[in-house]
Design goal:
Layout: H1 3-14, E1 18-24, E2 27-32, H2 37-46, E3 54-62, E4 111-119, E5 124-131, E6 139-141, H3 151-161, E7 164-166, E8 195-200, E9 205-210, H4 228-240
Parallel strand pairs: 2-5, 6-7
Antiparallel strand pairs: 1-2, 3-4, 4-5, 8-9
Length: 241
């Protein structure tokens, strides 16, 4: 089945339950409401002309700074060190500022879970996207009863983004430590973190304390247009003579 045929088949089968269905770069992406996720996922797995037997990955996405760029540049900055220092994105904003509630064009939700599906039977792939309806408490149904291999994937998205997968039997952190505060892949998570650990010789154990390091920003070098390096070498050669 070609990607074009897969897109047409999905639109025919699921109709209005698809919030979006697009074909880009040879891959089909569909978007569902959380209430339809389990039912549609089960059909994607079981129906003979679809047969997406495997969910190879689940990842979270934070769209709070969608469409904004702090480092993107093709030329030297006219403002010098301020580029990359002034907080133009949510990467270094304080948590829960007003800017984070700005609606994303065409959507309005902040957190999404993206599922990457594989049909071994038909040798085609599908990307499935679901947005959590509540930004403050992002909840999406778990699909562990459809593809039980998503157990650790959903735990990872919970750990890094704080997305709650309702119905998951053991939803707990998988990458960060037990005493970790916050979710490190959220756009409003401070780059220096919230806590640090150290060994306390008096208590003879590792303790947690508020982070004490000073935030640093390293501005990347600008790669200039072709020919600039040659001009510099010629100038240096003339001065050396």
């Amino acid at each position: 089945m070609t990607p074009e045929a897969l897109k047409d088949r999905l639109q025919e089968r699921f109709g209005d339950r698809l919030a979006d269905c697009v074909l880009a770069r040879g891959e089909v992406t569909i978007e569902l409401a959380p209430a339809d996720l389990v039912e549609v996922a089960t059909a994607l797995r079981d129906e003979q002309d679809l047969r997406f037997e495997q969910c190879v990955d689940v990842c979270g996405v934070d769209y709070s700074a969608w469409g904004q760029a702090e480092w993107a540049t093709e030329e030297a900055s006219g403002t010098g060190f301020s580029r990359g220092v002034e907080p133009n994105t949510a990467a270094r904003l304080t948590p829960r500022t007003e800017e984070l509630s700005v609606e994303r064009p065409g959507q309005g939700q902040r957190f999404a879970a993206v599922y990457h599906l594989l049909s071994v039977t038909h040798n085609h792939r599908l990307r499935l996207k679901v947005f959590a309806p509540d930004d403050d408490l992002p909840v999406i149904p778990s699909v562990i009863d459809v593809w039980n291999g998503v157990n650790w994937f959903e735990r990872e998205a919970f750990d890094l983004f704080g997305i709650i997968f309702e119905g998951h039997p053991d939803l707990r952190r998988i990458l960060t430590d037990y005493g970790f505060i916050g979710h490190p892949f959220r756009k409003d998570f401070p780059l220096s973190g919230n806590v640090e650990v150290r060994y306390d010789p008096e208590q003879q154990r590792v303790v947690y304390q508020p982070v004490s390091i000073e935030p640093r920003v390293l501005v990347p070098r600008v790669i200039r247009a072709d020919g600039h390096a040659d001009a510099v070498q010629e100038t240096e050669g003339e001065s050396g003579e």
